[in-house]
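During the no-cost extension, the postdoctoral fellow (Dr. R.K.) reprocessed legacy sequence entries with the updated structure-token encoder. One reprocessed record is reproduced below for audit purposes.
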Amino acid sequence: MVEYIDNKFIHGMLPRRTEDSNKSTFGRILNIAGSKNYIGAAYLSTMAALKVGAGLVTLACPDYIVPIIAAKAPEPTYIYLKTNSEGAISADNNIKELQNYNVISIGCGISTHDDTKHFMFGLLNKLSIAQKVVIDADGINILANHKGEVSLKNTIITPHPMELSRLLNVSVDEIINNREKYARITSQTYECITVLKGHKTLVTDGQKIYINKSGSSALAKAGTGDVLTGIIAGLLAQRANTLEAAIMGTYLHGLSGDIAANDLTKYAVMASDIITYLPFAISEVMSEA
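Re-encoded structure tokens follow.
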């Protein structure tokens, strides 16, 4: 069964904002992101989660990155992660009070170093069943090289075709030509929600396929995937279930790009513009009759 995601489809899914609330009401996210070559990935994924409504986002990243991002972003809190001699997240990091977060997002620009892999699996294996997870980018590449070492229940993964090719050991062309088939196979195999990125991004729980109607070539820029991860994590933090968060996040991400492109042209939209225009996308969905 296939359904299409549009304004009307997600209108009733948007998290409610009660006035009798505090930052914990709208969720706490731990975002593990960034490395020496991908500082922007940490910034973009963190700020997108806050912009979509999460109550608190803590960025855990290599210690040398924190001052760079904090100078531009005073809103998140920060955890300084130790690094190895190559600047990758070290295996011996131990994040205290992990259970304080209801959502964990991991993977945006973290590198695939073995130390980082050990850190990632050690962290994921400590989570409770109540905690939801979003895995993107290098997190998926790590999973591809170490299948079966961690459970993906309560998890959303957000691969593009190349990342999914590595995860399934299937050619990129085969995936592109059979997107619905391989998105379903991924969710059925790993018991997760799959967001297969691309033109008309697909979301599936392994049974139904949801096809996104928003988005355009304006999103074909580095960093937009990091923004998508943050948006989905932010919606999860506000108590959306994994399927709803993936559907809403995918649509709002694309719609933000569409609105930005109307002002800036498809040529000029950058990943940070998606975050800037996100409130206008939310407003448009909220106004749906």
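Residues 242-264 form the longest helix (23 residues). The chain is about 40% helix and 15% strand. The remaining legacy entries will be reprocessed before the final report is submitted.
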